[in-house]
Amino acid sequence: MAVIVREKTIKPFVAKPDDDLLVCRCEEVTRGDIRKALHAGLRTFGEVKRYLRVGMGLCQGQTCQRLVRVIIASELKTPIDEIGRVKGRAPARPVIMKELALSSEDSKGVDDYGE
What is the pLDDT of residue 18? Predict the structure, then answer.
């Protein structure tokens, strides 16, 4: 389990030339966005994920998780193991309420719009 150290102070935010680098393509989050969030007080991957939506796009963090964790670890000067990881969840697909209300036999004629 990750230990969150809130008292840990980091230097004030100073923009870097590569802050416009796109880290999470699905949610269009840049390196600078992540760094600003860390300087605002966020300390774990889960907090950054909920605040910026990194890892919540179509890839579910498969392409950006490692990059985000490295950025957090380097910015906070913390071992990467203390940052946390994305908790994977099965993809969800919208379901029409009418489909839920009908029994399996009754729902055979229902189209995609529930009519």
Answer: 93
Closest by CA position to 35, among listed 53, 57, 20, 50: 20
65: which 2 tokens? 């998780």
Q: Which among 113, 80, 83, 109 is positioned nearest to 96, based on CA atoms?
A: 113
Of the candidates 61, 59, 64, the residue with the CA atom closest to the CA atom of residue 30: 64
Please answer whether residues 56 and 101 qualify as being in contact, where contact means their C-beta atoms are separated by less than 8 angstroms.
no
DSSP strands (E only) in 16-105: 22-24, 29-30
CATH number of 17-82: 1.10.10.1100
68-102 pLDDT, tens digit each = 999 999 998 888 888 877 766 666 777 788 877 77
